[in-house]
Amino acid sequence: METIDIIYMLIALVLGAQICRLIPLVLPKTIISHPILQKLNRILPLIIMILLVLTSLALPKEGTGYTLLIAQVLALITVILSYHWFKNILISVSLGVLNVNLLIWLLG
């Protein structure tokens, strides 16, 4: 990829992020307080997290890699349980990373 292409991509990313931040300031309050947008605002973070989790799992190919998948699923369960218990994202993610590495070490 050429340097100019990287610069164009960086400019597009910055403009896209800034436009997303400025739209709520410009739109009328009646549009922002619409029930569909309020529901989307509540459910969108969960959908994004589900997509990130599903795309991050290493699915086994041709009968190999099941130990990694098992370690990742057990680490995800650890993250969910620890977040439910501690209500702290930093602790939950740290325990998940620690758990997946320990499980890979133990199972591998």
From TrEMBL:
The chain crosses the membrane at residues 6-28, 40-59, 65-82, 89-107. It holds the Pfam family AzlD. Keywords: Membrane, Transmembrane, Transmembrane helix. InterPro entries: Brnchd-chn_aa_trnsp_AzlD. The keyword Transmembrane helix applies. It comes from the Bacteria. This is Branched-subunit amino acid transport protein AzlD. It comes from Otariodibacter oris.
